[in-house]
């Protein structure tokens, strides 16, 4: 049901500045490897279950999503796991198809359940030398909302199921037969109501009297 | 056939066998000339549609009806005597039309939806023909004097609708034939009736006829209900019990009243339409839960202990039940 996903707000998270991995010494060599890492951390003590991750691409070819999950609620250790490997954002890394598209990764697309997540690491790859600068913009996380529990069974429904102590029917008519007669009468009335017509005779009078506005003064 | 003809030509010398052959031959011819095959086929089809409990009575009525049709139509128009006795014969013919229309309406129960609708259509067409129509149609050069007696007026060639008085009469007959006493059906007829000068279109006619048919069933059911509620040996039923039982029906009707079929749904928004029908279904379920045997047992038990005293007789019960129905009938406007 798509309507349950609307109006969800993204969770507050901190997107760290992208770190470009480099080969060799950081100081000397400025050759880019075409790999960049973006960390997204959630406020301490507030792990979330992710519904989806949305972002706008900027010339990134492939993205890998890794999650830091806590084993159980509040206890247990945290562990990194890979949710998605090399999702292609661009058809061809050298051309600009998909280079500035909006993307959304849903929890269904992930290989693991993104629950109790504390931190997310997005590994961006752009093997083409055409695009030296690449990143993801406007990264947002949406929490997974449990579907609202079924509305409480209304009183009337529970009345049907729960048989309280059978009432004392001494001297009273049989409820089954009375009920079936009443049901027939109710059904007949409903039939009559369902067959109403909107056709009119075109009367002007209301309850036998004419509306004063219809009288013309000449 | 050839050998039969040979036998016929040889019939003069030899009597017996040839006589039988001619008889069967002329029988077949006679039957085909009279169109009996069609007659019987029509009768059987009508019977299958009506599925009446009394097949012999039904067939008798059917042929009676046909006889009156064939009698009236050729003879009725262009007749000197007919024209002279204008208003009287017009009245009589109207009554005849009314009787035939009522016969058609009695054929199918309102729950047999398509058969009932067909019959209503036929009845409407029958009543649509005014007394003046046949002379006008068949003898266009006929004197205008005959048309002046026509209540609708000469302008309604082809039948613009059923005359209000005739329609009201139809409803009255339907109610009384259905076993509803006149006093009980009076409030209903006040809501449905039409003035004599008004012309009733088909939709209104159908609605009125269906409502009366349903109402007669409803009253019969309420009479049955009263018989169930009151203990036969102890006279009239207790007022408290009757009120309690009718109270549950009223509650159920009020619960399901919210889902009227004429609330408009935006056709563009299918999701909304789906929600609307869900809401309707839930309301119906809720209403029907209020008249379940358990609820009724509780209501009756409660009534016994703390209801008003006194008794309620059958007539009052019937009127109270009828009232629940009639308040929900839309007034013809």
Automatic annotation (TrEMBL), chain A:
GO cellular component: nucleoplasm
Annotated protein name in UniProt: Nicolin 1
Alphabetized InterPro entries for the sequence: Nicolin-1
Organism: Oryzias melastigma
Automatic annotation (TrEMBL), chain B:
Signal peptide (residue range): none
Domain Tubulin polyglutamylase complex subunit 1-like C-terminal residues, every copy: 93-269, 276-330
Chain segments carrying region Disordered: 1-24
GO molecular function, one term: microtubule binding
InterPro entries on file: DD_TPGS1, TPGS1, TPGS1_C
Domain of life: Eukaryota
Protein name per UniProt: Tubulin polyglutamylase complex subunit 1
Organism of provenance: Oryzias melastigma (Marine medaka)
